[in-house]
């Protein structure tokens, strides 16, 4: 069972959360006309074996979006922060 330490609610089972995708993807600027940049933003994702930053929403709790640093090999969570905080 994966446990996620919500900064607002404390540790909770992952069943209370919804996976929201890769948090390392950077959205192109609104006026960026580069088709390749938008294609990569919408469709292309890495599938790393190791540390990965992911969006999770606490849908059964505070409903806040979180950025979770999780190792995809063993599901060990290294860090959790609010998605409202600026990127490091
Ligand atoms: Zn929460």
Describe the structure.
The protein starts with a strand and ends in a 6-residue tail after the last strand. A hairpin with a 7-residue loop joins strand 4 and strand 5. It has a 4-stranded antiparallel sheet with strand order 3-4-5-6, with no helix packed on it. The chain has a two-stranded antiparallel sheet with strand order 1-2. The longest helix is centred in the middle third of the chain and has 9 residues, at 35-43. It is mainly beta and 88 residues long. The protein contains 1 helix and 6 strands. Helix content is 10%, strand content 38%. It has one helix at residues 35-43; strands at residues 3-6, 10-13, 18-22, 51-57, 65-71, 77-82. The mean pLDDT is 94. Bound molecules: zinc ion.
Summarize the structure.
The chain has 88 residues and is mainly beta.
Topology:
Layout: E1 3-6, E2 10-13, E3 18-22, H1 35-43, E4 51-57, E5 65-71, E6 77-82
Antiparallel strand pairs: 1-2, 3-4, 4-5, 5-6
Zinc ion is lined by residues 6, 8-9, 58, 61-62, 64.
Helix and strand composition category: mainly beta
Tell me the number of helical segments per DSSP (H or I, 4 or more residues long). Answer: 1
Largest sheet: spatial strand order? 3-4-5-6
Q: Average pLDDT across residues?
A: 94
Structure keywords:
6 strands; 1 helix; binds zinc ion; mainly beta; two-stranded antiparallel ribbon; 88 residues; four-stranded antiparallel beta sheet
